Amino acid sequence: MTFDCQETKLHVHEFLHKELSEAEMQEIVAHLANCDSCGIDYDLENFVNGAIKDACSEVPPQELAERVLANIRAMQKDLDHA
Question: Is the entire prediction scored with pTM above 0.90?
Fold first, then answer.
């Protein structure tokens, strides 16, 4: 699979949490190295994740984490189509 901008933006969260295969991780690294737009999205996601991690010492319930992630993905799709 080749990661274009849409695929990279959809999977940046999983990338940051190392939830992808090694091949997928390498594809995203290669894409981020050559795409300023996705690099900005990566930086934002990384910043938000860091802020959440710093502010929360407890692990959220899995259902809550999945809802938040679904909302973030929906917002990303809306931004991509704007």
Answer: no
